[in-house]
């Protein structure tokens, strides 16, 4: 999941992240999301479909903890 993130991969010309840096960032994000979920103890999560790794992490953590997830999408309405 992280290697496909545009921030970490080869599209970032500013900094080349090492594997340890990426794992450290992901670990800190997981701890932050866990702390937020534990403190707020939500009944559900409303969000758009995950596109970035942070959103995917939050989505998977809430799903694992049994929190209901409501994903917002745009309807596919075509004109006749």
Describe the structure.
- The chain has 80 residues and is an alpha+beta fold.
- The protein has one domain.
- It contains two helices and two strands, in the order αβαβ.
- It has a two-stranded parallel sheet with strand order 1-2.
- α2 links the parallel β1 and β2.
- It starts with 18 loop residues before the first helix and ends in an 8-residue tail after the last strand.
Itemize the secondary structure elements and their pairings.
Layout: H1 19-40, E1 44-48, H2 53-64, E2 68-72
Parallel strand pairs: 1-2
Tally of separate domains: 1
Report strand order across the widest sheet: 1-2
Major sheet description: 2 strands, parallel
Spans where pLDDT lies below 50 across 5 or more residues: none
C-alpha geometry: flat
User: What is the share of helical residues?
Assistant: 40-55%
Summarize the structure.
This protein is α+β, with helices and mostly antiparallel strands and 80 residues long. It contains 2 helices and 2 strands, in the order H-E-H-E.
């Amino acid at each position: 999941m992280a290697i496909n993130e545009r921030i970490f991969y080869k599209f970032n010309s500013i900094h080349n992240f090492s594997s340890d840096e990426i794992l450290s960032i992901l670990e800190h994000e997981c701890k932050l999301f866990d702390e937020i979920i534990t403190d707020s103890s939500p009944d559900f999560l409303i969000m758009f479909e995950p596109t970035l790794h942070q959103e995917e992490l939050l989505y998977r953590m809430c799903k694992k903890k049994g929190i209901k997830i409501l994903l917002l999408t745009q309807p596919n309405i075509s004109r006749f």
